[in-house]
Design brief:
By secondary structure, the protein is α/β, with parallel strands linked by helices. It contains six helices and 13 strands. It has a single domain, classed as Rossmann fold. The strands form three sheets. Strands 1, 4, 5, 6, 7, 8, 9, 10 and 11 form a nine-stranded mixed sheet that branches. Strands 2-3 form a two-stranded antiparallel ribbon. β6 and β7 form a beta hairpin. The two termini are about 30 Å apart.
Length: about 210
């Protein structure tokens, strides 16, 4: 895969460790869900170290008053792509507990592998917030591209997309379609199979998160 200015592939030992357990077919639903949240928190910390709005306040310490930077209230929104993206929301909320949450529902046509939108509900004023669009798996890139298109139609100007596992095909598609969107992926896998699943991957993230298979 070529290098893209808007793509960051993490190479953090803690993330690699957690992904190794996440992949294991023997990992329980409870542990899988916890790992997704933990990896998301680590990704959020790295992804927003220079991209979140702050403001200056005065703080009185036991010794004196000093100026400090804090994150602006109501400046971040989380938008999971349903349903697997729901598993990443709590991981972001660890760092941004007051962030409002929107939802975009997409399902993949099993014959064409193309995404189909079935639901969209976004917070008021989302166009003025930093939007974290989250989905554990970036496979073909179709759902991510369509979700970003939808957010842009709603006026969103600052969007960051986070995925835990990415395939080169999906990363390239989103990076080229939306060069103004920062893309963060925990690990880049080898390829997609004939059914559009990531290899080696971890199976269906939604099924493993919610115990539906």
């Amino acid at each position: 895969m070529k290098n893209y200015d808007n793509v960051v592939i993490f190479n953090h030992p803690l993330i690699r460790h957690k992904i190794a357990i996440l992949r294991d077919e023997k990992t329980s639903m409870k542990e899988f869900r916890e790992l997704v949240e933990e990896i998301t928190t680590l990704m959020t910390y790295e992804s927003l170290k220079d991209g979140v709005a702050t403001t200056e306040i005065q703080v009185k310490t036991p010794l004196e008053v000093c100026a400090q930077q804090v994150v602006k209230d109501d400046s971040v929104a989380i938008v999971p792509i349903l349903r697997a993206g729901l598993g990443m929301v709590n991981g972001v909320h660890v760092l941004f507990p007051l962030a409002k949450v929107g939802h975009i529902g997409m399902y993949r046509n099993e014959e064409t592998l193309e995404p189909c939108e079935y639901y969209c509900k976004l917070p008021d004023g989302i166009e003025d917030k930093l939007v974290l669009l989250v989905d554990p798996m970036l496979a073909t890139g179709g759902s991510a591209c369509d979700a970003i298109d939808l957010l842009k139609k709603r006026g969103c100007k600052q969007i960051k997309f986070m995925a835990i596992i990415g395939a080169p095909e999906g990363v390239s598609k989103v990076a080229e379609a939306h060069p103004d969107v920062d893309i963060y992926v925990s690990t880049l896998d080898r390829c997609l199979n004939e059914n559009g699943y990531i290899l080696p991957g971890l199976g269906d993230a939604g099924d493993r998160l919610f115990g539906t298979k």
